[in-house]
Specification:
Distance between the termini: 49 Å
Largest sheet: 7 strands, mixed
Number of strands: 13
Radius of gyration: 21 Å
Order of helices and strands: HEHHHEHEHEEEHEHEHEEHHHHEHEEH
Oligomer: single chain
Structural class: alpha/beta
Bound molecules: (2S)-2-hydroxybutanedioic acid
Strand content: 5-15%
Length: 397
Amino acid sequence: MMFSHLEPYAGDPILSLNEAFHGDPRDHKVNLSIGIYFDDAGHIPVLACVREAEARMLAESGPKPYLPMEGSAAMRSAVQELLFGADHEALRSGRIATLQTVGSSGGLRVGADFIKRWLPASQVWVSDPTWDNHRAMFEGAGLTVHTYPYYDATRGGLRFEALREALARLPARSVVLLHACCHNPTGVDLTREQWRALVPVLRERELLPYLDLAYQGYGEGIEEDAFAVRELACAGLTFFVANSFSKSMSVYGERAGALSVVCGSAAEADLVLGQLKATVRRNYSSPALHAAGIVSRVLGDPALRAAWEADVAAMRDRITSMRRALHQALSATRPEHDFGYFLSQRGMFSYTGLSAPQVDRLREEFAVYLVRSGRICMAGLNTGNVERTAAAIAAVV
Ligand code: LMR
């Protein structure tokens, strides 16, 4: 047999857990595993603006040619305005190369392949901890991946000085993967002051920041969550940013994302775009028409855009209210524990500090599913399950 020597796949820590959740017959099960926003009834919402964009697409339905390797022009320019602001100098001077990609994961991987080819001596540093798939993606592209200090387990906060010192020692042209907002898995973000303090280190060490912006709007707001992107662009740094609409438009399976590379000049951006197109062609050839149709319409039509902004605010506010409810319920039952991190952390995730055996107990005894690192997806909580979840956590801590 040709493939009998293969190692069995152990499964993905997040996706396999989500599959296990769906196979669990218990009615009272709670899914806090995967980074998906569920509404208060436990459903993935279909945003009215997305439905309307799709209705218009159906009404205009015509031929379905391939998109170019770099994706839809309308989506690419809408993404640039969303990320950088329409008046940003980097945008006006044409020094940003943007491609529509297959989700932000597609963007991350295309960027990683590009780096491997054109900066082959560069190595990658990711936060400790980071999204499980970051390391796999960069290593899959043939790059060596290391970690820099990030999470402070004693306070549920950030080890900013250790982070800055670690970056200050990196070789020139090292790639530094940073979460622009709503850090996955910890929910611990840099403050604006900390981003500003990091810029001189990135510049002086000639580092290559690679921002992952998968949760725009879930932190402080759509504009506010683009702060790091704009700050690095204003500082004149060269960097990558992969962004996603999976969560912000609730279009997970459409694979709507983009990759932007901010360059030193328009001529350099042209070169970069050309080689990114070549990378895409070797990879998946071109991205999806449907994703481009949704994103360009929602961002480009003033009424749909306003409706989307309101939806994002409502999703963010619901998560905040769940953070408060969980904090309150846990603090009432286990007053000796400090659960303040649920309130200070931002976005979909919080890092609970629960050990793998405690996580296993939650799943096996209480049907509460979270990733074995102790990451909890707050967006899986709702008014119907938060008390039950708090009681289960209180029982295992
Ligand atoms: C997550 O971190 O749960 C999400 O980004 C979904 C995924 O693909 O892992």
